[in-house]
Design a protein that fits this description.
Number of strands: 16
Helix content: 25-40%
Radius of gyration: 20 Å
Low-confidence stretches: none
Largest sheet: 9 strands, mixed
Structural class: alpha/beta
Order of helices and strands: EHEHEHEHEHHEHEHHEEEEEEEHEHE
Strand order of the largest sheet: 14-13-12-11-7-10-9-8-16
């Protein structure tokens, strides 16, 4: 891991559940420019276990008490989706910068409610679309924005696997749970169409937007057969690029995720791995003029740590935002709502006309 810098962003993690344990605690302790200043969870037993393991400077049972800590500079919101916006609002109102797990929200108006307070407080809000910190995707983005020239089409797919848990249990830390953990009023998995779109579709939509820009319309179909949910989504981008997205949960094969991009001066073919392997995507970039394909190794595949380092650089050094900002988070939610509405209506949906929630 890189050596720690002299100036470290003092970060508090809200929530000691699975995503914090698998990603965010380690990111804070390993990041070159951040430190795990505090953790917060209402479950005393879980919080104590995580404090013993990760050694934050402080621990809190009450979120407002953590936000009142004058030494705290930023908060990672690692809670269930339903709590993202209320927790982000309270952090922003307290003058703290926010790195919020994806999806930013479950509805458009809820997501947009963050705009005013973030602007008024002058705080950074970044959304945890950590795939933007995959070195393979970053290499593709550099080519797309430069030598590739005009983009023509993009295809992207995110296909979860029936074998993912046997495979990821071998590499993830043992996830500790508590009967005292705070849970949403409604079971998020009660509606699997909604749950899969928020959990997995948010990654797919953001990847498409990262490469091709804003989405103006979607035409989506959903088939639920043999225990497999498959969304095929035709996408129209503001740039005129044509797109197609495939979200399937779960395929009877290995994890299957990637993208193809066709441009005037070359093309890109990407294969992305299950994120818990911390392996950068294999991305083959074909340069038409040279008649050759190039691939970046991307040896550092800790996307969550690199995401936090990018967030901290924006705050501490005024570096450009390379992650997903507030507007990216809102746009992702809007696209997912539009996909859900297109599935129900069996008609194309223009994002400018969309309101409501998933």
């Amino acid at each position: 891991m890189p050596a720690k810098e002299d100036r470290l962003l003092r970060v508090g993690v809200l929530g000691c559940g699975p995503i914090a344990q698998a990603a965010h605690f380690e990111s804070c302790t390993k990041a070159r420019n951040a430190t795990l200043h505090a953790i917060c969870d209402v479950a005393d037993d879980l919080r104590a276990r995580m404090a013993a393991t990760h050694a934050p400077e402080r621990q809190f049972a009450d979120y407002d008490a953590m936000l009142a800590d004058p030494d705290l500079e930023a908060v990672i919101i690692a809670t269930s989706d339903a709590f993202h916006v209320p927790a982000a609002l309270r952090a922003l109102q307290a003058g703290k910068h926010v790195l919020c797990e994806k999806p930013l929200a479950t509805g458009i108006e809820e997501a947009e409610s963050l705009r005013g307070v973030a602007a008024a407080q002058g705080c950074i809000l970044q959304v945890g679309h950590m795939k933007r910190f995959d070195a393979g995707l970053q290499a593709a983005k550099t080519f797309v924005d430069g030598d590739m020239g005009q983009m023509v089409a993009l295809k992207a797919w995110y296909c979860d696997s029936t074998h993912r848990y046997e495979m990821t249990d071998a590499v993830q830390p043992l996830i500790v749970t508590s009967r005292n953990a705070r849970k949403p009023a409604e079971n998020p998995k009660a509606d699997l169409d909604r749950y899969y779109m928020l959990a997995h579709g948010s990654h797919l939509v953001d990847t498409a937007r990262y490469f091709a820009g804003g989405i103006t319309a979607v035409d989506a179909r959903l088939l639920n057969r043999a225990g497999i949910r498959c969304w095929f989504v035709d996408v129209e981008f503001a740039s005129g690029v044509l797109g197609h997205l495939d979200l399937t949960v779960a395929v009877r094969m290995d994890w299957h995720e990637g993208f193809q991009i066709y441009g005037a001066n070359g093309s890109v073919l990407g294969k992305t791995y299950n994120p818990w392997y911390f392996k950068s995507s294999d991305v083959d970039i074909f340069h038409e003029a040279a008649g050759e394909t190039r691939r970046v190794l991307g040896a550092d595949g800790h996307f969550y740590r690199r995401q936090l380092e990018g967030f901290a650089d924006v705050i501490l050094k005024g570096a450009p935002m390379t992650g997903a900002d507030l507007e990216d988070g809102i746009a992702s939610v809007r696209a997912m709502v539009a996909i859900a509405q297109s599935v129900r209506s069996r008609q194309p949906v223009w994002l400018a006309d969309v309101t409501g929630a998933l």
